[in-house]
Inverse folding.
């Protein structure tokens, strides 16, 4: 089962310890074949909406910075519970904040 884990920006300023712990976590998940992709996301983006035949393109940002998604990890695990445990480990490393886990369907 694949899960997309996203997180919102936090007020915590990263330090060398955080970078080291996160690098170790990422290496562990990569070596185990769990981590498929990870990355940060730009604050703005482009919104494309459609209504009938009309397509509208709008430059971001769209939400308050604290509500935007700041980064993601795509993982392949055996269960939802395993995805939750990985997200718990991530939150312990990065500290206070919010993450969302969503199952990814399709090939």
């Amino acid at each position: 089962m694949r899960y997309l884990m996203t997180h919102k920006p936090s007020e915590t300023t990263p330090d060398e310890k955080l970078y080291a712990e996160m690098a170790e976590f990422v290496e562990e998940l990569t070596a185990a074949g769990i981590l498929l992709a990870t990355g940060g996301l730009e604050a703005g983006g482009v919104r494309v909406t459609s209504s009938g035949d009309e397509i509208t393109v709008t430059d971001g940002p769209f939400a308050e910075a604290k509500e935007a998604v700041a980064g993601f990890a795509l993982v392949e695990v055996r269960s939802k519970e395993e995805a939750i445990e990985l997200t718990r480990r991530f939150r312990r490393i990065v500290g206070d904040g919010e993450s969302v886990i969503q199952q990814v369907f399709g090939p």
Summary: The two ends are 11 Å apart (CA to CA). The longest strand covers residues 2-7. Strands lie at 2-7, 35-40, 46-51, 54-59, 71-76, 99-104. DSSP finds two helices and six strands in the chain.
